[in-house]
What we know:
Layout: E1 6-14, E2 17-18, E3 23-27, E4 33-38, E5 47-53, E6 56-62, H1 67-70, E7 81-90, E8 98-106, E9 110-112, E10 124-137, E11 140-146, E12 151-154, E13 157-158, H2 161-167
Amino acid sequence: MGLPRKLKNLNGFVDGESFLGVIAEFEEPNLALATEDWRGGGMLGPVKVDLGLEAMEAKLKMGGHTASLIRKFGTSEVDGLRVRLVGAYQSDDGRPPEAVECFIGGRFSEIAPGTSKAGDDTEHEYTVPLSYYRRVVNGRTEIEIDMIAGRFIVDGFDRYAEIMAIVGG
């Protein structure tokens, strides 16, 4: 029997500060290759040629006003903000929970405070374009992308190492 692992609980840390009880939601970045169609002479049709990676973006939702996060808006560094998100995923088939950690580096490009009405729930959403992303499951790094350093590691294999060796990285 197999049942899917579902998120049972989570916490977020921004520059080391815990947001346990405050973080409402985290949207991981989509991972996408940047590609371009190429059809050379003699080919029956185009193929997608790998040109690197698309830009990555994550989102955080916090339950209400969080002054310490608003104060981080406008940093001039592309990796001026460090976020660690920890989730416990568990299926209801008796298997133990899995620890899933996401480490991201970027900066807030947008803060959406939404609407505020006395007595109603409020959430602030923070958009983070990423220069760094790492996903770790039970202590094992599954994927690590460092846009600035030119690292693209999947399951322990750096898919970009040979190119970085040629260009001096």
